[in-house]
Amino acid sequence: xxxxxxxxxxxxxxxxxxxxxxxxxxxxxxxxxxxxxxxxxxxxxxxxxxxxxxxxxxxxxxxxxxxxxxxxxxxxxxxxxxxxxxxxxxxxxxxxxxxxxxxxxxxxxxxxxxxxxxxxxxxxxxxxxxxxxxxxxxxxxxxxxxxxxxxxxxxxxxxxxxxxxxxxxxxxxxxxxxxxxxxxxxxxxxxxxxxxxxxxxxxxxxxxxxxxxxxxxxxxxxxxxxxxxxxxxxxxxxxxxxxxxxxxxxxxxxxxxxxxxxxxxxxxxxxxxxxxxxxxxxxxxxxxxxxxxxxxxxxxxxxxxxxxxxxxxxxxxxxxxxxxxxxxxxxxxxxxxxxxxxxxxxxxxxxxxxxxxxxxxxxxxxxxxxxxxxxxxxxxxxxxxxxxxxxxxxxxxxxxxxxxxxxxxxxxxxxxxxxxxxxxxxxxxxxxxxxxxxxxxxxxxxxxxxxxxxxxxxxxxxxxxxxxxxxxxxxxxxxxxxxxxxxxxxxxxxxxxxxxxxxxxxxx
Length: 508
Hints:
alpha/beta; 3-stranded antiparallel β-sheet
């Protein structure tokens, strides 16, 4: 078999190994439920291009269009898993193509692509469907860079526009383009990126008009020192992931890998045939937008900067034998595999808890109840429950609270007044609500700001309290603890709880 044949065979094998967890270790969770609420309620996929569909926080209309198309009720996770795998594999392949376009050796380009594909933190980001914003932005950034290096400026500009409409991290694209065009005179480099700058300015203008401001989450921001540490920690975990090994060990091992790659780049910076410090500069520029974020925590934030680290590591291994390449790839793959196994267990538990909550709500609705407090450990449980097609007809009358603070809910109009103290202040999102069609998705209060259990009961006298817990078989059972909670609160007295000695709500 030829060298190219071996490369193709290995690539296919790696893709199969990496691809399986995308379909077995993923599910809708976290922010996914907000995107799915948009897909269910927005009248058409072009709403976020011209109006604020993201609560005054961000302007990312292109991923929301994709979510609207793939998130139709009843389609499940398969389409999103396939999209995530395709985007991740595409980003890895485009990393290799970019390096080849820059004249780097085949071994370096292929090595960087493999590291990008196998890096545990990259896989963790790709498994999270909401991170499609980051994956789409990265794919379009890479495509634009390849096009601009090859002199196809119109295509580069079109892909740049798609990147800008995917996530704010893509705003670093013009600077990245200046880096990869370093062999050209400054005048030609500026001419090449001029269309990208014009489009970026246009997107910023539209963003300000749509969001009625610059946007942002509105949460408390980390200090500069804290944020720099968060960025350093995120970069250190690219090749070691999180949760598989003790965090201190993961941070130390990852830092050592980055340091060795940086040392190799510095040592070869004057090599006429080397990449010099370009990979590290790429990483630094790609990570620069994180300084504008409130907090730089989460694997998705380091997906684009990981390209520079994968490139730097591949350059450092360029003179090593094939055994070193295989050994590193195997270690990274083993860590990623262990991470996927762990994630699979988490996904099974999560899906079982959501299913149990849906059964609780379905049974409660049949008995005439409309408000539930389900202690499940599931964020945005209200949205997750209402995704069940069997509850679609009555979803507009139900409110599901959970034990995870700052969860998002759709409050039925009839419950808006009693639910008011439960809503976060300052509001989540900053504009007060996500407006999806005729519904509003609002954030519940943060833990320290939430109302007491007494107040919740006073406002919702017929609320049902349910606790989900696992049994040895791994299944999740629901236990109604409403009577226990009623008795406990009643024992504390009418003055504090609004309940009389029989556990009945007092009248105003």
